[in-house]
Amino acid sequence: MFPKIKYEKVPFLTKKLIIPIGTVKMFFDGNQKDFMVYRTLIDKKWNGIEEALTLRFNFKPDGNKHNIKFIIETEEDFSLDYAGGEFQETFSLEHENFLLMFGVEGDFGGFYKNGIYEYKGVYEFDGIIIEEEKEIPMKYGFDIDVFSNCGERNFDFAITWTRDTKNEIALWYSTDPYSNRIE
Fold it and tell me: Which run of H or of E encompasses 172?
C-alpha cells in the first residue's frame, strides 16, 4: 500500500522529507525551517527495518524561549500509540502491514522540572478536518518548548519504519536518538 523509498544521498538538508506515509516538516517558532537528515546506524540484530533516519535541528541560543515542532502530515488513518521511558519519547503509527515510530530524546513526564532538560515537550496530534469539501491532512508529531536558558545543542528526532508489524521492539530501540549513532 505505501511506496518504498530509498534515500540515495544521505546526509542531506531539506525543508520536508517525503516518507512512505506522507511528509515530515519542521517548524521553529512557527516558521518552516531546514533540517538535516542522516541515516541511523542500527544494531544488525534488529532486522526487518526498512529505514531508520535521524532528523537533526541545530539550535543556537539567543536567550529567548523558542518552539520546535516536527510534524508528519498524512492522509491515512492510523492506529496511534505512545511510549516513553529511559529519556526517550516515542509514538507509533500502524496501518495494516506498516508500522512507523518517531522518537525524540526527552521525558515529557517532568524531568525538565528537575533540571535534566532545558526544554519540555508534548505529543502533537490533529485529526483530519473536512473544511469546505477539502481534506486537511492529519498531523502527528512533537511540540518542544525550549527554555531561555538552553545552550547550543542538536535536537535529534529518530524516525523508522517496517512492513513487519511484529517488529515493534526493534523499531522502538532504533528510534532512540539518545543512544543511536548516525552515518
Answer: helix 168-174
